[in-house]
Amino acid sequence: MDLSYALTPFLAWLVAGIMKFSINSIKAKQFAFGLIGYGGLPSNHSAIVSSMAALIAIKEGFGHPAFGVAITLAFIVMLDASSLRRQVGKHAAAINKLAVESIDHQELRERMGHSRVEIAAGVLVGIAVAFAVEIILA
Questions:
Q1: How much is the average pLDDT of 17-34?
Q2: Measured between alpha carbons, how far is residue 35 from residues 40, 98, 119 in Å?
Q3: What dihedral angle (degrees, nearest 10) is formed by the CA atoms of 52, 7, 14, 120?
Q4: Model-level pTM?
Q5: Model pLDDT for residues 26-61, shown as the tens digit of each residue
Q6: Cα 96 to Cα 122: distance, rounded to the nearest angstrom
Q7: CA 9, CA 15: separation in Å to the nearest integer?
Q8: Cα–Cα distance between 135 and 93 in angstroms, integer?
Q9: Closest to 119 in 3D by CA, of 53, 41, 54, 49
Q10: Where are the domains of the chain?
Q11: Alpha-carbon distance 134 to 57, whole Å?
Q12: Which pLDDT band holds residue 115 (cuts at 50, 70, 90)?
């Protein structure tokens, strides 16, 4: 079995996560452990799915059926990140604002989705990781 197919999305997740943590820590001027999770630059989800699509394109070609499946999945994930999850974050902000007076209200996470720039950054990270894995393991 070619381990690059298992290694690439994991490395894309790791690289994007480290980048996001570093960027958030620099912005906050302290370690930003509380900002780990959904939202932020770059998008981990976009990095993961685009790394797999890019690796398949590199190894198998753009005409391979697996590339079609991978790119379809990537589009679904990126559309979800930019629309549905972003709307969930807006709803959480509105609910948090309404529930300020509630004593037992546990604040909902507002940072959920991604902007187009965050998604594009995730795609670039994913593609770069796929090329790096192919170069190193080739």
A1: 87
A2: 8, 23, 17
A3: -10
A4: 0.82
A5: 988 888 777 666 678 899 999 999 999 999 999 999
A6: 29
A7: 10
A8: 44
A9: 41
A10: 4-137
A11: 11
A12: confident
